[in-house]
Amino acid sequence: MSTHHRNKPFARYADDVVVHCRSKEDAERFWFELEKRLSELCLELHPSKTRIVYCKDDARQGEYPETKFDFLGYTFRPRRSKTKYGKHFINFTPAVSNMAKKAMQQEIHDWRMHLKPYKTLEDLSHMLNPILKGWINYYGLFYKSEMYCVLKHMNRALIRWAQSKYKRLRGHKRRASVWLGKISRRNPQLFVHWQMGIFSGAG
Fold first, then answer.
1. Please, which residues have CB within 8 angstroms of residue 177's CB and are 6 or more apart in sequence?
2. What pLDDT does 147 receive?
3. Cα gap 127→67, rounded to integer Å
């Protein structure tokens, strides 16, 4: 890249690479040269992951079959954005990918909080806040609202924990949601997503 393609910015993590080209023709030539170079090293491009993607936005309004790609847990695609003056436009930007969201929701499920009624809410906060904060800091850099479904899933898991812990809430999901909602508004510092205003239920 540094010798033959200095005009092509690229990002790499392990064997995943994104290369920026100026045109479709430029990308196709690069693809051909890269295949040739890798074959010399007894390597090859991944047959399904290797694609030419059109970075569509207000400045690039052509029609191409591929207009999005995933990289490092983000999906890059055309999105509706707004300037500081309130004007809307289409921007090619990243947000947490659906695959990453599903993985985080699965991890929350795997914590099995409802099987830990012996834990206090403060215990859960100390255990899980560092993980939640890490997710928010990484995936919340762009379009933080795309993380809300994961954080609401966390609230639902806490509701199940409350139902398991307190007899008066067992079998009463709505009652447990209201109970947790009041706590989340009264003590938002307990969980990092509560500090963002992602409260539980009604309060």
1. 159, 200, 201, 202
2. 96
3. 39
